């Protein structure tokens, strides 16, 4: 029994040209295609629809907003819904992208195996993330992060609004009240010297119901088509 076990072990080593190396132990790092692990120095996230989180992890230090992350252009991006642990990659919503590796529903045919776990604790701003990917091409991606992750800071705007990453200047602001419904509509136009509401002008429209005395808007969820 002992001899058989030894032979099997030797045969496995010979087939692979030597002993199997131990698995990589990552600590807040990314390993791409078997290369040297890269330290993660910045981690931020965005959230949509209250529970759709997109995490960005970068080896560039000091990144606090999406402009900085886009400028660095070296990040691991992971999107999950309700990040509370292991992701079922066969049924749950998720995306993973890093360099030339991109995993989503449309590209799963190119994936040999994928493991994903994401647990975000809002009370402590801590993200526990594990990514393990092997593509059909043989390319691999590993990542582990167990550290703080802050929500991306909003851009600083001055008489502007941002749409699709572009800051647009507000040239005119109008307030219009509906005597019948009691609703109040605010028009923020890009053009200057607009004195009454007009169709066809570029801008942002916000309508408040009569009973609204104090309201907080998350304009990141506004549908530009509406």
From TrEMBL:
Please list where the region (Disordered) is annotated. 1-23
Q: What is this protein called?
A: Uncharacterized protein
- Record the organism: human gut metagenome
């Amino acid at each position: 029994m002992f001899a058989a076990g030894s032979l099997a072990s030797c045969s496995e080593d010979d087939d692979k040209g030597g002993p199997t190396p131990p698995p990589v132990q990552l600590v807040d790092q990314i390993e791409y295609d078997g290369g040297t692990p890269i330290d993660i120095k910045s981690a931020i996230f965005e959230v949509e629809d209250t529970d759709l989180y997109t995490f960005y992890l970068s080896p560039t230090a000091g990144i606090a907003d999406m402009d900085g992350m886009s400028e660095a252009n070296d990040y691991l991006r992971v999107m999950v819904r309700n990040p509370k642990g292991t992701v079922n990659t066969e049924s749950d919503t998720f995306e993973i992208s890093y360099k030339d590796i991109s995993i989503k529903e449309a590209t799963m045919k190119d994936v040999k195996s994928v493991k994903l776990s994401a647990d975000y604790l809002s009370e402590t701003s801590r993200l526990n993330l594990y990514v393990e990917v092997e593509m059909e091409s043989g390319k691999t991606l590993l990542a582990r992060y167990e550290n703080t992750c802050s929500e991306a800071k909003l851009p600083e705007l001055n008489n502007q609004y941002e749409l699709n990453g572009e800051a647009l200047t507000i040239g005119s602001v109008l307030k219009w009240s509906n005597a019948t419904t009691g609703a109040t509509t605010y028009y923020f136009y890009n053009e200057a010297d607009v004195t009454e509401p007009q169709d066809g002008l570029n801008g942002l429209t916000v309508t408040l119901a009569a009973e609204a005395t104090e309201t907080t808007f998350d304009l990141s969820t506004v549908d530009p088509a509406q």
